[in-house]
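Hello,

Our lab assistant flagged a job as stuck in the queue for most of the afternoon. It eventually completed. Since we weren't sure the result was trustworthy after the delay, we are filing this so someone can double-check. Below is the sequence as submitted and the structure that was eventually returned. Let us know if re-running is recommended.
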Amino acid sequence: MDNEFYDRSTSLRLQLGYGIGHVLNDVCASLWFTYFLVFFHLVLEFTSTQAGNLMLIGQVVDALATPFVGYHSDHTDNYLSAKYGKRKLWHLFGTVCVLLSFPFIFMDCIGCSMAHKWAQMYYFASFILIFQIGWAAVQISHLSLIPELAEDPHVRTHLTAIRFGFTVFSNLFVYIITWIVLHMTGECDKEQVGPRDAWKFRHIVYIVLGVGTVASVLFHIFVSEGRGLRQQQPLIDYNDNNRVHFSIFRKGILYQVASIYMSTRLVVNISQVFIPLYLHKTLGLAARSLAVIPLAMYLGSLLAAGAQRLAPRSFTRKLNYFLGSVCSLAAFIWIYLDIDYDYKVYYIYVVAVLIGFGGSQMLVTSLSLTADLVGDRTEASAFVYGLMSFTDKLSCGAVIAIIQLYADGASSDYYRSVLSGVCGGATVLGLICTLTTPKLTPDQQVTDDNNPSINTIEETGPPTDLL
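-- returned structure --
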């Protein structure tokens, strides 16, 4: 009995420790996607095109860094990685990069605030480059730990749900802090965001980075990569390892899952980026809404995390994704059709919850599909996650830059059309890709050409048991 209690306690500690390992990335991503364009366009007064280009630079660097980090994370083999764990070593490297660069993104250009905006772009781009490399290292190393820590696909889904649950709480924390800072330092119920609010964003960044740093330290204390189930397996020859990496590109299932993941990330990220500008420019709402409406979105995400946890095992990946898509599509259609007073005051919160619920449901499912794609060949797990993230970051960056290119001088309804058209279209694309994925068996995943069970992933629902 004592041993059983000890195992259960260790498992809970491992789950919680793993979950908080991405909090620093989550709070930074929340600020990046929700307030980057707001800060650079409305506070620093860059043009829409300039702000969009800076975000594109970040997304391209992130897109290129993720497969690079993934490949080298899989191949890391030195004294430090043997003692500390190769995934955790890359996680530590990324954490340091994020902490040294992110604060400088959300503050005035030090020593060059009076310079031309195009000159300031080089200053901010240098910090964005360091931040995105670090962010990619943390993301890929943390995701690739899932197959290392669990064999059962239902448990992997559970770890993914825990990770996403902490992502939701991290975003809620960011929006609550933003609302508190805006509420206590001005009439946020009446005034819109402007250049005078630069110092407020700086203080918000300091607060959330402090919490993220503590979470990262606890992750490195509580999670021992050596406990992972995969660490007990014999080392794999590097020639075989390279063959696994390159053979992945010949598997059609990789491109199907990548399409699903890319479409889902477009829905989640594009809505998160442009909801604040939609509230500010299309609906003309005050600064308070830029914190409260995103907060409502992530309350919807929290509901989705609970729904996935309570859903029966009979719920398939396709059914979960379908339910999320329906909620998201309903919200984007509502945005396109409605703009009257009641919508601005009341129904916008319902729309926000629908977007959060649907996007969360879709994202957890797409991440679970990626974990299934990895299967038992965890020596290539970081590379697979890197490829998924590559499609996500590159597509999001390109779409955001194109949208911002035509934003200057556009009508007030421009961002309403963006949310309904781009996000709605991505939702439909993701749903089509998911529904057309063939029914697959539990023991099949992307490995190499010498393994007969290579071409499929398990279709199953969320877990009902703990790790």
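-- support follow-up --
The delay was a queue issue, not a problem with the job. The result is valid. The mean pLDDT is 80. The chain has 16 helices and no strands.
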